[in-house]
Each structure stands twice: as C-alpha cells, then as structure tokens.
Amino acid sequence: MKTPFFILLLVTTFAIAAHAQDIVGPWNGSLNVSGNPLRLVLNIAKTESGYTSTLDSPDQGAAGIPVSKTTFENSKLSIEISAAKIEYTGDFQTDKFVGVFKQGGQEFPLELRKGSVAVKTLIRPQEPQKPYPYYAEEVTFDNTKAKIPLALGKDVYGKTIIADLAAMPHGLVAG
Fold this sequence. Notes:
This protein is mostly beta strands. It is 10% helix and 46% strand. The strands form two sheets. It has a nine-stranded antiparallel β-sheet, with no helix packed on it. The radius of gyration is 32 Å and the shape is rod-shaped. The termini are far apart.
C-alpha cells in the first residue's frame, strides 16, 4: 500500500513541477505596423517581490527600455511602460504568450516566444565590401616632368594643371 501511494505522490510532484511556468528570460515577437514587421524582445527577470523586465526593439536600435510594471498571475502576463504609454497583456499557451500590444490608442496582436532574436548586421554603404555593386578601377599615372606632382585643378580650357611642388618654394596654408 505504501509503494503505490509513494509512486502517486512522486508522479504528482513531477507533474506539478512540469506544469510550473518558467517565464524568466528573453521572449521575442514581431508586430505588424502598417505592413512592416517590428521585432520586440521582452527580457523578464525574477525578483524577491515578483518580476521585472526590459524591452528591446532591435529594428529601432533600442535596448534596455525599462518596464514600469511586470506581473504574471494565473498564466496571464501584463507589462506597462508608463513613459511610452505602452501596455501588453498576454495569456500563456504551452510555449508562448498570445496577447495584445497597445500604444497610443492603437492595438496590435503580439505573440511572444521564448528566446532572443539575432541582431541584423547593418549594411554600411560608406564601408563597401567586395564584390562591389559597381565597377571600380584603380588608376595611377607617372609624371616624368615633375619631381613631386601636385594636381592644381583645371584651367579655363579644361586642361588639368599639374605643378612641381619641389619647384614651388612658397606654401599656402588655408584654414
């Protein structure tokens, strides 16, 4: 009699522990704003008094936005960012939160799934990488007439003026 009771107690304990929801960590989702996706990451941490969290918006370059209020009761997550007038309320369903994101009188459906998102590498046109999307050619020329060539520009007829810097004993300092 003791063995079946002990097994039942053990199974019940594991079932309750498995059912307990661990919401600590990053949760990510995407809003559809005027047809454009806007990724959000909610970082939840456990404290002695409950939960605290921050919000990241990788597509806007924003990270660590402090959340004013974070609550999780009866499988319902609620966050509030007072400064930006943002609210989110979502119900926990197996492995995700399904809810509504509100800001500035607008409402958007938002599903949050556990895990962080990869940050996209920005393409910086001022630092191009090969292969270039354009034709590039390095050009040099030798000036056998001048010892230290200095291109001064073009004359009124469009001819390039090149002077010998060594033959010019004066200098011009412009600021």
